[in-house]
Structures are given as C-alpha cells and as structure tokens.
C-alpha cells in the first residue's frame, strides 16, 4: 500500500487514480478510506465534463450557472455531477466539500 495525502490525494481523486470508500468501524462509526485504483480501471476516472462540473459546484455555482457556463443542458450537468459524486464515493456536494477541506488543509 502506498501512502498519499493532502492536495496530492485530492488531485488523484479527481483524476480517478484513487477512490474514497466508506467503511463502518467496529464500534459503529463510519470513516472514509482512500484506495488506489488499478491503472487500467478507466471506469473510475471522471471525464473532463464531470471534472468541470465538480470544480464549479465546489465553488458554489448552481447547476443552472454551470450549464450556462459550459453550454450544456441543466439535466446534463445534473447527470455529470451525480456520476462524478458516485465515482468519488460521496453522496452530495457538501460532503465533497468537507472531504476536500479535510484533505487540502493538511
């Protein structure tokens, strides 16, 4: 197992090289664990549109604003965001913001 942390892990997540998996601790709580993806696993790698949508959503842009900026339908942006969140192992933009804050503040 390789160790990776902070901003490097954040970039690796966005590039699909690493994923976040939620695991249940013995005592009951939940925690996130970073796992490295196999080099040939392209299904975990967010596409450019997904990365753009994630970055803009993290900056607080609404789906409508992102759609206008990227020249896409709002439904396409919502789909890209949902796919990216699934690939990153989180359920919402606020959860992703907390994850990023925890990784990049170290």
Give the secondary structure arrangement, pairings included.
Layout: H1 6-15, E1 18-24, E2 30-36, H2 48-58, H3 63-70, H4 74-88, H5 93-104
Antiparallel strand pairs: 1-2
Helix pairs in contact: 1-5, 2-4, 3-4
Instruction: Give the number of helices.
Output: 5
Mean pLDDT: 82
- Give start-end ranges of low-pLDDT stretches: none
Based on CA atoms alone, the radius of gyration comes out at: 14 Å
Tell me the β content. 5-15%
Structural class: alpha+beta
Per DSSP E runs of 2 or more residues, the count of β-strands stands at: 2
Classify the helix fraction into a percent range: 40-55%
**What strand line-up does the widest sheet have?**
1-2
Task: Tell me about this structure.
The protein is an alpha+beta fold. It has helices at residues 6-15, 48-58, 63-70, 74-88, 93-104; strands spanning 18-24, 30-36. Strands 1-2 form a two-stranded antiparallel sheet. Helix 1 packs antiparallel against helix 5 (93-104) and helix 2 (48-58) packs across helix 4. The longest helix is centred in the C-terminal third of the chain and has 15 residues, at 74-88. 21% of the residues are buried. The model has no long low-confidence stretch (mean pLDDT 82).
Give a brief rundown of this model.
With 106 residues, this protein is α+β, with helices and mostly antiparallel strands. The chain contains five helices and two strands; from the N terminus they run H-E-E-H-H-H-H.
């Amino acid at each position: 197992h390789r160790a990776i942390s902070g901003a490097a892990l954040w970039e690796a997540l966005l590039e699909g090289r690493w994923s976040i998996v939620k695991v249940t601790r013995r005592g009951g709580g939940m925690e996130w664990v970073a796992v490295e993806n196999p080099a040939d696993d392209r299904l975990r790698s967010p596409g450019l549109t997904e990365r753009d949508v994630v970055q803009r959503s993290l900056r607080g842009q609404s789906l409508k604003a992102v759609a206008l900026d990227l020249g896409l339908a709002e439904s396409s942006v919502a789909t890209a965001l949902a796919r990216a969140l699934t690939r990153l192992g989180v359920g919402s933009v606020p959860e992703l913001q907390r994850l990023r804050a925890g990784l990049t503040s170290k």
